[in-house]
Design goal:
230 residues, Rossmann fold, eight-stranded mixed β-sheet, 37% helix, globular
């Protein structure tokens, strides 16, 4: 297992009126390494997201996880998230902050600006899909049980997309719809629905089925990223 380095960093908000707290993990050395944006669930930048970032660093990536709730009123953030995902899924303040994080990562000396991807979970999965469409130069995105963008036809402009979904969830149909559109637009993709799993199966491994689903999704994701980023 390679030695990794991790530290807290500050990333500018898109509107440049403050900073976002962030966690950065990378392999030891100068690089440049491929980059990865890790987007948290509604629970914020917690230890689960930091651990996922470390695991990407162990695989050779420079991983950046920003706290989208940094220095903001939490209730207001919830309203912005709901409004952005439902009504402005390709032009909202959280997406702007994530694209600011994308720019920050591209400008980091140890990162190869031409080899960057994103992964997100639930709320973060919705934003990973939005970034797949709007973040010019992103090589691939992985979504875990996230909402689809509107209009869904926008995925015609997406970079390669991988998705992992439970079969007992409000996002299950979204997975089928997304796969159909990606297929129609010839966007490289790998969408899988896991039987006997529920929402947040990757971070809340409650049953043997969900543990196995998490392992399989991780390996699929590494393979997909190795094909489209590295």
């Amino acid at each position: 297992m390679p030695t990794i380095e991790s530290l807290s960093v500050d990333v500018p908000h898109a509107e440049r009126n403050g900073m976002m707290n962030a966690f950065f993990a990378k392999p030891e050395g100068a690089g440049p390494f491929p980059g990865m944006i890790v987007i948290h669930e509604i629970f914020g930048l917690n230890e689960n997201i930091r651990q996922i970032s470390r695991e990407f660093a162990e695989q050779g990536y420079a991983a950046l996880a920003v706290d989208l709730f940094s220095n903001r009123n939490r209730a207001l953030c919830m309203m912005q998230i709901f409004y952005g995902i439902m009504f402005r899924p390709l032009n909202n303040s959280m997406l702007a902050d994530l694209n600011s994080a994308f720019d920050f990562l591209k400008q980091t000396p140890s990162v190869d600006a031409n080899r960057i991807g994103a992964v997100g979970f639930c709320m973060g999965g919705a934003y990973a899909l939005q970034m797949a469409i709007t973040s010019k130069g992103m090589k691939a995105a992985s979504v875990f049980y996230g909402a689809n963008p509107k209009p869904l036809e926008a995925v015609a402009q997406a970079c390669p997309v991988m998705g992992s979904y439970p079969d007992k969830d409000f996002t299950t149909q979204a997975a089928r719809d997304l796969e159909a559109r990606l297929e129609n637009y010839n966007v490289p993709h790998d969408i899988k629905i896991y039987e006997n799993t529920q929402h947040s199966f990757y971070s809340q491994q409650r049953t043997p089925f969900e543990v196995e689903a998490s392992k399989d999704a991780w390996l699929r994701m590494l393979k997909f990223f190795s094909e489209h980023i590295n």
